[in-house]
Design goal:
The protein has 353 residues and is α/β, with parallel strands linked by helices. The chain is 42% helix and 12% strand. It has a two-stranded parallel ribbon. Strands 3-4 form a two-stranded parallel ribbon. The protein has a two-stranded antiparallel ribbon with strand order 5-6.
Amino acid sequence: MRQALHNLNRDLAREAEKAGSAFAARVTSDEGDIGRGHLSRFQDPEERFPVILTTSQLLTTGVDAPTCKNVALVRVVGSMSEFKQIISRGTRVREDKGKLVFNILDYTGSATQKFADPLFDGEPVRATVEAIDEDGQTIEDSRQTEKEEEPTGVPQYDDDPATSRKFYVHGGPVGIDTEVTMALDAEGHKLRTVEIRQYVGDVVRTLYTDPDDLRRKWSDFEQRSEVVEQLAERGIAFDELAQLAGTPDADVFDLLCHVAFNAPLRTRRERAKRLRKEKQDFFSQFGPEARAILATLLEKFAEHGTSQLNIPDALEVPPISDYGNIIEIAGKFGGTDKLLAAVGKMHELLYAA
């Protein structure tokens, strides 16, 4: 068996170098010099191979691998100190190789259980600096923390993010089966794995008691900005959520209510169509040009969302800018205040129900 493993590693290395491709190497104590050779090459940032190293124990301690970007756990790690030793193989930064972060691929739950360490986590310890005179008396006493250096320049990455690549495994295409996110528990001590839709629903239900509560805040321009900011701070991206739900044309408000409160999922165009049909009296109070401007704003909302109702930005692009400058457009409504009131009321009616 030992000789077979030696031969396998040797053949992998030879064939990979001939083909100019990456390969995986197995390293355990049984592999002896061949295994240690692969380990040393894995540690060398200038070496191309191997890019994947499998080992049961050798990477636990005493191995410096600056370009290691992924650490996989396939056995339960019971000790906190051993867990930190294992994952610390990925904590080295190597900017010239594009290594600024690393991933923990946990198949055992060890990372979730060991994430919070009360003896390690928390604020950095403050250092005391004293200056003394010739007699040994303190003349200056100050507390300070080590200041982090500001990053300089833009790190260069090996991969071009603009280039899309497709990978194949055993002749079949690779795709994303399930996406999950990790969230801290209420006490902020442990990570839990949640499906993205579940995570978004939990966040929305925590911030807003019911759909009407969310609707009241979303209908108001200023409060809507606060809603968007609160959700963004919690890592919720509307475009990604819409793609995940399979409804890229869904209105953001309806998407949030659907995920959090199981409400019907409407598109922006459905909301715009219902407003035109059920609130004709709202539009009839304005002159022909003002009605045309509101109709154009409503169509832009149906295509792109609530950002198209932001005044004055929405008035400065065609086709609305064809009606004149901002002052001229406001004049068609009877002044700036009435223009803002009209657009604000239309936005409110869009989310009346």
